[in-house]
């Protein structure tokens, strides 16, 4: 009688868990009054790094455009159609973003010989920072100039926030920003984020896929 119970208990340990590890608390937090920040946890997204093979960057961009409708942005850029897009990571490298990992399933075969494709869906945590005080919040820790003249919609950076490596891109003029952080640093990053957001008042929500 004990063996099935043991198997069931062991299986439960392997259930999928959020990259944020349960640290965020949904709802309204921080200073009273109208919330100046909204933190949206983007769960279940598909992420993959694309690294062009030598001499094949043009061919890679052609296949991405023709087969997937994705535009590979130039250095420091991000190109999106809805929740699908590419974010520049380094010369010849991009981060592909999609509503689910399933949406990226055809990339490895389609880009064979043109790029190395590495799934990052479970390796990074994504959060969207928006609201009238979003820029002021991130300016507390980000190591790039976020002034609208220097960093606006469609801009991206591989940088650090509070000494934690992140990939950051601006989605719109709201402003709203998406931030990808390594899963192993998600808890530390969230601790900084909620502390920095407290003075503005903030709301936490989750969007699946």
Automatic annotation (TrEMBL):
GO molecular function: sarcosine oxidase activity
Keyword vocabulary terms for this entry: Oxidoreductase
Pfam families cross-referenced by the UniProt entry: SoxG
Biased composition (Low complexity): 19-32
Domain of life assignment: Bacteria
EC number, UniProt record: 1.5.3.1
Biased amino acid composition, Polar residues: 1-15
Residues making up the signal peptide according to the UniProt record: none
Keyword Oxidoreductase on entry: yes
Region (Disordered), start-end ranges: 1-32
Protein name, as recorded: Sarcosine oxidase subunit gamma
Organism of derivation: Methylorubrum thiocyanatum
């Amino acid at each position: 009688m004990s063996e099935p119970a043991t198997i069931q208990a062991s299986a439960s340990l392997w259930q999928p868990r959020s990259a944020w590890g349960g640290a965020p608390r949904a709802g309204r937090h921080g200073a009273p009054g109208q919330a100046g920040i909204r933190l949206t946890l983007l769960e279940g997204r598909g992420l993959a790094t694309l690294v062009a093979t030598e001499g094949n960057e043009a061919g890679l961009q052609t296949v991405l455009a023709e087969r997937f409708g994705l535009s590979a942005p130039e250095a420091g850029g991000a190109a999106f159609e809805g929740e699908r897009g590419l974010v520049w990571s380094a010369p010849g490298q991009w981060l592909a973003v999609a509503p689910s990992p399933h949406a990226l399933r055809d990339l490895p075969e389609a880009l064979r010989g043109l790029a190395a494709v590495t799934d990052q869906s479970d390796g990074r945590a994504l959060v969207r920072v928006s609201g009238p005080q979003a820029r002021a919040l991130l300016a507390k820790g980000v190591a790039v100039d976020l002034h609208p003249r220097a960093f606006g919609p469609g801009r991206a950076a591989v940088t650090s926030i509070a000494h934690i490596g992140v990939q950051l891109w601006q989605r719109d003029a709201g402003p709203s920003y998406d931030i990808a952080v390594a899963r192993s640093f998600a808890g530390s990053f969230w601790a900084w984020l909620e502390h920095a957001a407290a003075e503005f008042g903030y709301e936490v929500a989750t969007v699946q896929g």
